Amino acid sequence: KAGVTQTPRYLIKTRGQQVTLSCSPISGHRSVSWYQQTPGQGLQFLFEYFSETQRNKGNFPGRFSGRQFSNSRSEMNVSTLELGDSALYLCASSLIASGSRTDTQYFGPGTRLTVL
Amino acid sequence: SQQGEEDPQALSIQEGENATMNCSYKTSINNLQWYRQNSGRGLVHLILIRSNEREKHSGRLRVTLDTSKKSSSLLITASRAADTASYFCATDIYNQGGKLIFGQGTELSVKP
Q1: Do B40 and A45 touch (CB under 8 A)?
Q2: Does the pLDDT at position B1 exceed 60?
């Protein structure tokens, strides 16, 4: 089975712009989670989608949004980019669909976003 | 705020030695997972231990979990240069499906 794929792998944007990142989960996985990784804050949970519904959300401003399509592929969008949004954005998919627990997550290689 | 605190932050050992990393957390969990990350790439799942388990093995990895102390440890035996990476513990909290809370990580360097 192919692993989790993320596109693009690298992105450079300027402040004020918006960006859309894409994630394709492992075939058969319906849960997709997004994380932001920075040197200062570490790995932080953004949100999780299951069956096109956002089930869980982290503590990020409304500029960060996402969606999931019927084929389980997911996108996240960041509007009005700030310098502090520079980070590695990771998505992960999971086979287990429970809303009450999280099993093994399989991570993609990430999208490295640089905001100038 | 981070749920997990890892100790040490950095660890440097020689090939063949054992490496032990510790993780402490704050709230009750469903399970605790360990992941490895090589130099800013994606995370690789190593092992998952459920809250009713005390010890788990996978190849050269041994994980323990003490829910009374809210702590876990990861032991890598007979380390290799290829084990050089950052290691993270992540906790799964009840009723927050799809969300893992990660510790700050331990940076392991294994010298040949």
Answers
A1: no
A2: no
